[in-house]
Design brief:
alpha/beta, Dihydrofolate Reductase, subunit A, eight-stranded mixed β-sheet, two-stranded antiparallel ribbon, 21% helix, globular
């Protein structure tokens, strides 16, 4: 399971209002180092928190004729299964334990990688269960001063740097999660 995210230089995945609009000012090559296109092709299933899903539905996918941009099945962590699904979405609302969700995702992914979309609390949930394997970050040259933290963990996370490259405006970092 890979936590793949953009992050500000001071460690936030969204600003204080929960927006990602600050990322729009930056250039990133989807085919470049740790770029979106190769990553997306390697993913067989994804999971996100309800807050991330609601942000998508109320922002980029707010229109009634919006089409879901992902081919993979998507688990959405929620206690309220009232998801307004856009066209083409394979959404699976759940409040099951992280280990059970990961098991279902692996089965659906057929050997492909799993994507922990986020937000930070969702990544922390899977990290606490020992299920995050890697963290891929596109670090933007912004200091937000607050917002949604990258990984708000109750216990420390130790990462080993596997790769660092430049992707236009971003530092592209790939880490392995070190298990105790």
């Amino acid at each position: 399971m890979i936590y793949y995210s953009a992050v500000s230089l001071d460690g936030y995945v969204a600003d204080a209002a929960g927006s990602l609009a600050w990322l729009d000012a930056h250039d990133n090559d989807a085919d470049g180092p740790l770029g979106w296109n190769a990553f997306d092709a390697s993913i067989g299933a994804m999971v996100m928190g309800r807050g991330t899903y609601d942000w998508l539905r109320n922002g980029p996918l707010a229109e009634d004729d919006a089409v879901w941009p992902h081919r993979q099945p998507c688990w959405v962590l929620t206690h309220r299964p009232d998801l307004r699904a856009p066209a083409g979405a394979d959404l699976r609302p759940t409040d099951e334990p992280a280990t059970r969700i990961a098991e279902q995702m692996r089965e659906a992914a057929g050997g492909a990688d799993l994507w922990c979309v986020g937000g930070g609390r969702t990544a922390a949930y899977f990290h606490a269960a020992g299920l995050l394997d890697e963290v891929w970050l596109s670090v933007a040259p912004d200091v937000l001063g607050g917002g949604v933290p990258l990984l708000p963990v109750a216990s420390p996370a130790r990462l080993e740097l596997l790769d660092v490259q430049r992707n236009r405006d971003f530092a592209a970092l790939r880490y392995r999660v070190v298990r105790a």
